[in-house]
Amino acid sequence: MSSLPSTSSSASLLPAPAAAAGSLRETAALAAPTSRDVPRVLAIAGSDPSGGAGIQADLKSIAAHGGYGMAAITALTAQNTTGVRGVHVPPASFLSAQLDAVSDDIHVDAVKIGMLGDAQVIAAVRSWLEEVRPGVVVLDPVMVATSGDRLLQESAETALRKLLPLAHLITPNLPELAMLLGEPEAADWAVALEQGRRLADQTGATVLVKGGHLNGSTCPDALVNTAGLLSAEVVEVAGERISTRNSHGTGCSLSSAMATAQARLGDWEASLRAVKPWLAGALRTSGQLVVGAGNGPINHFHHLARTGSTATPERKGGFAQLLRAETVADLEAIYGLGFIRGLADGTLMEKEFAYYLAQDAIYLNGYSRVLARASALAPTESEQLFWARSAQQCLEVESELHRNWLSTRTVQTELGPVTKAYVDHLVAASAGGSYAVLVAAVLPCFWLYAEVGETLHAEYVAAGAPGGHPYAEWLRTYADEDFAAATQRAIEIADAAGRAASAAEREAMITAFRHSCRYEVEFFDAPGRHS
Question: How many Å apart are CA 203 and CA 229, to the nearest integer?
Answer without folding.
Answer: 13
